[in-house]
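Input/output pair, single chain:
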Amino acid sequence: MEALPELYAIFQGEVATVTEYGAFIKIPGCRKQGLVHKTHMSACRVDKPSEIVDVGDKVWVKLIGKEMKDDKVKLSLSMKVVNQGTGKDLDPNNVSLDQDERKKRMFRDYTSQKITLEAVLNTVCKKCGCKGHFAKECFVQPGGTKYSLIPEEEEEEVAAAGHERDKKTSLADNSSKKRKK
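Output:
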């Protein structure tokens, strides 16, 4: 078997073929080729790899992945982490490669989940007694501040009318107490 470069090794290779998804690079010292995907050609977005490289171009690449599939070794290369003029490693600790991998793994498909809206405005919490949330969503600490929803205008008018009625009765009670003295 041919000697392949070590993982994260940098070398200069020749572009063998260019496709719509990337470019295949001949690895010096062996007959293998590695793929530079269009996402690893440049730090900028690449729509057409043929605008970046042509067949026969010499490019600096870094070996970023080896994968065994169907008894074949597939090699992943990157041009964006290597200075194309000098061949210097722009990502010596492989930080940007790790970030790229994390971005790929963190993607979740939320299209299949349905959004449901619940009417919780007229509910009363069993924990604190306030309106507008359930007990499982209550954040009140024992002896802490209690919060509830602000009543709507109609409710305010009814409450204000009841409050005025209470004031009048309390004033009448106070005046009758004064007369008794």
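The radius of gyration is 36 Å. The mean pLDDT is 78.
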